[in-house]
Every structure is written in structure tokens, then in C-alpha cells.
Amino acid sequence: MKNKLNLLRICLILVLGSIALSACKKNLPDERLSIANDSQYTQYLYQPVLGRNTLFANNFQYGNSSRPLDFKIVNMRTFNGEPAPELTNNYPVTVWKTAYDGTEKSLAAIEAKRTIENHPLFEVRPHSGEFMMWAAANSNMVKAQPDSGYVFDVEMSNSGGRKYYQNFRLRPLRERPYEPSNLDPITGQGTSVSVNPTSVFITGERGQLLNTRDDVQVLFKKTGNGNSLTFKFADTLSNPIDPNKFAATDWANLVHGFNMVKDAGKVKYEVAYPIPCSAYPTKYTTLSGDQARVVFRFNRQAFGNIQQQCFLSFNFNIYQKGDWEITFWFKRDKPKFDND
Questions:
Q1: How far is 210 from 201, CA to CA, in rounded Å?
Q2: CA 12/CA 320 separation, integer angstroms
Q3: CB of 251 within 8 A of CB of 267?
């Protein structure tokens, strides 16, 4: 009987202890995240070029703030303090729903990887603090330099509280549909600056190696609103040079294009825009993937029975959809295609 009483007392103590412990836990405050003073933006002036997707990354230092963090743009306004609905309203923009990798076999296959979503033209990524200006923004709807542009603030928050970063500046530059470009970023007008190939190793008919800067000029021209890219070559008198003279060129893999048409005056491809489609390295781009890269080649026999491997290379971007022509104008001397 005595043992039973002792066992009963022990059980009662355990039950009461469990109840007390549970009550203590309920009375403890919830664990809260923290907002640290050393969390900060490292950039307050943003100058995206309109007409292209521009991501401003690595612009925020998390410091000791607890993550995840939430970011949102607040109080977007013009430099004069007026509302700026052109930047706060949603617009249709093109986004990738499946990653582009350069192996797509048709224009339709590329387009199938993209979709349309509605976004503000300028927005903050909700958990990283990075800013994005979408290509749908243009200078007909958004204030561009030399205008003073916009001012905005950012709210950062988590369950521990919130913090505000104030007086960011957004001063977009006018469209430059292609790079390298001879268009002034403030006025959008053409300048006297010429666009030249990235590199040239070609002997001219006068017997001298052609100079990249002085002897060859690159001309961009938009002729329609389709999805094509055409390459042309012109001599000093602007007469066409047959692309077939660049006989060692890998035409099938020159660009990520389809349904190539080549004749005595041009080479034309169906392509997806922008070029390159994304900053992902492929066999059609530079090593970084930031630009498309084309190389036109031919071989000839020089004096001394030397095999000369001639080439013209060009790294470029085209951001605006359309029917574009790129002409390589040999303005001072024609390439020497024949053997010595």
C-alpha cells in the first residue's frame, strides 16, 4: 500500500511539472528576426539604358540582419515630387519560364521558353534588394536624361521590424538598340564615332594588313519589324562583296539562327531577339555570354607559300526586335581574296 502511494506521488509530480513547463513555454516570447544597422545599399544612383533588361545586382549588403528579408519600393516620384504612375503601374514584359541554353533547334523552340507577365517597369526583387529595369520601358513613356528622372525609397522588413532607405535616384539613359553603338546616350542621336570590328586579320589589295579602326566600319540598319538578321559586306565604293568569298566561315553555326539564305549579296537568318537571348555562354557568344560573336574566315596563299588564315570578328548585341542588317564596309581597301 505504501509503495502504491509513493508511485502515485511520483506520477502526480511528473504531471504537475509537465503542466508547469508547458505554461512557461507558452509565456516565452516568440523568436523574432532582427534588423541590423549595418545592412545597407552600396549604390543610390541607377542609370539603366532603356529598351533592354537591366539587372542591378550585388548592390545590397545584408550585414547582421536576419533573413529572409522583404523589400519593396515606396514613394516612387519624379524629381519634382509628382507621382510617377508610368513606373508603378504594371505592364506586359517577356520573361523566361525555362532557361535558354543555345541548343534550341528553331525559333518556335526559343519562343516556347518565354512567356508574358505583368510587372512594374522598374522594380525591386522582393528578397534580394536588387533592382530590375525591364526592356518594355522606352523614352516615350519614361523620363530619360537629360531629364532629372525619378526619386524613390525602399522599405526593408522582416518579423523583427522594418527599415527605410531614402532618396534613391533613377536616371534612365535613352535607347541604344545595338552595341557597340554610335548613338549618344543622352540625346539618342547619332554621333561621329564609328563602330568597328572587334578584330581583323586581312590583307588588302594594296598589300597591307587592314587596320581594325581605320579600314573597316560596321553599319547597323533596321529595315522592318520581323525576326531576321542579315550580314552584308561592301567595298570602298559600297558595292557588295560576295559572302561566299569568306569560304572558311562556319555559316551553319555563325549565329543562333535558322533557315539561312545566302546569295551573292548577303547572308540572312531567322533569329530570336534580343541577341544574345540571355547572358548565358554558348557557342554563339563570347566566353562571358554577354555578347554575340561572329567570325568570318577565308584562307589564301601569301608570298613564300605561306597559308594565310584571314578573319574578321565582331562582338555585338541587338536589343530591339526587328529585321536588322549588319554591313561590314571596307572603306579604304578591299580584302585580297586571291593567292599571291
A1: 7
A2: 79
A3: yes
Residues 6+ apart with CB under 8 A from 168: 41, 44, 45, 46, 151, 152, 153, 154
**Chain segment 221-264, per-residue pLDDT in tens:** 999 999 999 999 999 999 999 999 999 999 999 999 999 999 99
What is the percentage of the chain residues whose pLDDT exceeds 90?
A: 87
In this prediction the pTM is 0.88
Which positions ≥6 away from 165 have C-beta within 8 Å? Answer: 40, 41, 153, 154, 156
Bridge partners, residue 156, by sequence: 71, 163
Contact criterion met (CB below 8 Å) for 294 and 254: yes
Q: Which burial class, exposed, middle or buried, applies to 197 when counting CB atoms under 10 A from its CB (0-12, 13-18, 19+)?
A: buried
Closest listed residue to residue 177, CA positions, set 240, 141, 215, 223: 223
Q: How far apart are CA 148 and CA 169, in angstroms?
A: 9
| C-alpha cell at position 58 | 550585388
**113 contact partners, CB below 8 Å, separation of at least 6:** 96, 97, 98, 99, 100, 104
Q: Show Cβ contacts of residue 30 under 8 Å, excluding neighbours closer than 6 positions.
A: none
